[in-house]
């Protein structure tokens, strides 16, 4: 058992974000209570979750066969919601009839398990039943499933569970326990049964939900995770009963915090949310290889291998686990572009497993301008996303002495020279990065890493500092969530509701004195006047346009006369202050004349 796991299991409680169902007050209701209590007995389970740090999610079902095109009309957004009124609004009888045409002959459980292993993932979570109520396994308690309601007549969940075992991967099951849009009494489902009699949630729970959870925890071998979703208005007693079923049948399985009522084992953050600062406890972020979770015929916006690695490393560096989704087509095949990106990222992970697996989060608690880092004992692993053209990479605030530094490059790592000045360590690098995706520098320390996490203005790269790290006075700092498309979540912390004299303030550390170009990223209406000031120093002020989406606008040059720490504040002075929402401030060093 790792020290990290023991530590996190002793935490009393943690609070986490929202699922993608929470895009209105109606959808917020589906999320329910969002506190997870971690108990001491959790130490006996979850090592794979805690140490593996990387997993595959699989969203696949009857909705995949529709692929976001219903009756010749394309619906843009997450495909597993195609039946819902926010998408195509397919009536229950029509939707259930579609099962007769579901024939996923290209589904290959062994190929998917091998893809996950090639990608460097440690377990797979498969959608046993999503909100549409269609079970992707041979359910004995309800016939609306892939074996009994379709001509396919095979149990893909059993095949995948066996394939995972053969590949040495863990296996988990997603189950939508509150929502069921096709079973009478299920959350957001029909209010009457086939005979027209009123149906209650108790009817759904007793006749379908609890029996199916019993099935998935007894008939598919060892299960690593039971991934409940959108608790909504489910009574606490029902969640307690489901948890008891899992504990009885799968005592080593982790239960996702989305079970509700604080009864899960770990936090699951909001969909597509990679946090920007370290998080306590056991937690995961769930993301997808393109924009939709399940297959959408038009969605070719795939994550590149580098983007996958950046998201994975950022999640691990903040202390969490990254679960990345694939959405097979209706015929069961995996889109090849998604598979290619996963394999390419996995090839990198095979060369640098120490960066990802069983590591500790960054002591800086946030990303750095050139990339991010993870820790193992007294060793830092610097993942360089942006290779410095100057040949100098700057690491601010490291207080522990360095034994050695090496640029990892296959069998022949290259020793790097470094020097320290004013609390900054600078490494001299070759002109060309050894890796196309992410290069890695291994720094062996003389002891436990101790750092000053203050944000530092990099003299080579643009330094963006998010509003998450600001102190707001006379303005309000709060989380903001919005959709680019239906279900495609974006997250940030904004500073808004500016009062006269209101400000957002950051402390910054400067090694290279001189002029810096300051940019602000914000939204708003019409033109806004912003002021940026250094405490005890100069101030700049400018009017710029605003946009409904976050964009970066230059404010001007700001001078830092000598090395050291400064407090920089931002205020919105004129314009429609009610709409002004500040996301970040950026600093870019201006080359000196000398």
The residue fraction in helices comes out at: 10-25%
| β-strand number | 32
* Beta fraction: 25-35%
The assigned structural class equals: alpha/beta
Say which CATH homologous superfamily of the largest domain is assigned.
Answer: Glycosidases
**How is the largest sheet built, in terms of strand order?**
9-8-7-6-3-12-11-10
Taking the sheet with the most strands, its summary is: 8 strands, parallel
CATH class of the largest domain: Alpha Beta
What is the CA–CA distance across the termini?
A: 56 Å
Averaged pLDDT: 92
Number of domains: 3
Question: What is the CATH architecture descriptor of the largest domain?
Answer: Alpha-Beta Barrel
Low-confidence stretches: 1-28, 31-43
The rough form would be described as globular
At CATH level 3, the topology of the largest domain is TIM Barrel
Q: What count of helical segments does DSSP give?
A: 12
Radius of gyration: 25 Å
């Amino acid at each position: 058992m790792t020290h990290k796991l023991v530590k996190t299991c002793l935490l009393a409680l943690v609070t986490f974000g929202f699922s993608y169902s929470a895009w209105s007050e109606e959808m917020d209701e589906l999320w329910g209570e969002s506190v997870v209590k971690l108990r001491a007995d959790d130490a006996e389970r979850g090592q794979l979750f805690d140490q593996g740090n990387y997993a595959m999610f699989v969203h696949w079902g009857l909705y995949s066969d529709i692929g976001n095109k219903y009756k010749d009309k394309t619906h843009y957004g997450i495909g597993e919601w195609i039946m819902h009124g926010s998408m195509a609004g397919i009536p229950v009888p029509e939707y259930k009839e579609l099962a007769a045409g579901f024939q996923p002959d290209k589904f290959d459980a062994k190929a998917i398990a091998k893809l996950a292993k090639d990608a460097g993932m440690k377990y797979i979570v498969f959608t046993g039943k999503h909100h549409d109520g269609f079970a992707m396994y041979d359910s004995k308690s309800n016939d609306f499933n892939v074996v009994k309601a379709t001509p396919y007549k095979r149990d893909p969940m059993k095949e995948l569970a066996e394939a995972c075992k053969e590949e040495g991967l863990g296996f988990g099951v997603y189950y939508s326990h509150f929502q069921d849009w096709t079973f009478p009494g299920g959350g957001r489902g029909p209010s009457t049964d086939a005979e027209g009699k009123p149906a209650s949630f108790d009817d759904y729970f007793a006749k379908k939900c609890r029996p199916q959870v019993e099935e998935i925890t007894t008939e598919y071998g060892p299960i690593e995770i039971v991934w409940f979703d959108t608790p909504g208005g489910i009574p606490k007693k029902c969640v307690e009963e489901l948890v008891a079923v899992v504990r009885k049948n799968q005592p080593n399985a982790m239960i996702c915090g989305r079970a509700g009522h604080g009864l899960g084992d770990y936090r699951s953050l909001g969909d597509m949310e990679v946090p920007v600062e370290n998080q306590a406890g056991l937690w995961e972020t769930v993301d997808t290889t393109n924009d939709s979770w399940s297959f959408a015929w038009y969605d070719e916006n795939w994550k590149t291998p580098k983007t996958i690695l950046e998201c994975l490393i950022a999640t691990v560096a903040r202390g969490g686990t990254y679960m990345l989704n694939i959405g097979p087509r209706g015929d069961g095949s995996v889109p090849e572009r998604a598979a290619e990106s996963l394999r390419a990222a996995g090839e990198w992970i095979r060369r640098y497993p120490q960066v990802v697996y069983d590591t500790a989060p960054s002591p800086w608690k946030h990303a750095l301008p050139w990339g991010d880092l993870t820790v193992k004992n007294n060793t830092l692993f610097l993942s360089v996303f942006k290779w410095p053209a100057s040949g100098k990479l700057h690491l601010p605030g490291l207080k522990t002495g360095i034994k050695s530094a090496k640029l990892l490059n296959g069998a022949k790592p290259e020793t790097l020279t470094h020097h320290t000045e004013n609390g900054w360590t600078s490494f001299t690098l070759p002109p060309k990065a050894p890796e196309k995706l992410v290069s890695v520098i291994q720094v062996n320390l003389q002891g436990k890493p101790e750092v000053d996490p203050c944000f530092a203005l990099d003299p080579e790269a643009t330094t963006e500092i998010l509003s998450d790290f600001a102190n707001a006075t006379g303005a309000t700092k709060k989380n903001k969530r919005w959709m680019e498309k239906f279900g495609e979540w974006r997250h940030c912390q904004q500073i808004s509701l500016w009062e006269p004299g209101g400000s957002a303030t950051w402390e910054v550390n400067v090694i290279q004195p001189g002029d810096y170009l300051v940019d602000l990223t914000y939204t708003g209406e019409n033109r806004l006047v912003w002021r940026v000031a250094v405490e005890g120093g100069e101030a700049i002020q400018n009017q710029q346009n605003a946009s409904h989406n976050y964009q970066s606008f230059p404010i001007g040059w700001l001078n830092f006369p000598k090395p050291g720490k400064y407090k920089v504040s931002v205020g919105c002075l004129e314009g429609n202050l009610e709409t002004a929402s500040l996301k970040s401030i950026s600093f870019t060093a201006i080359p000196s004349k000398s």
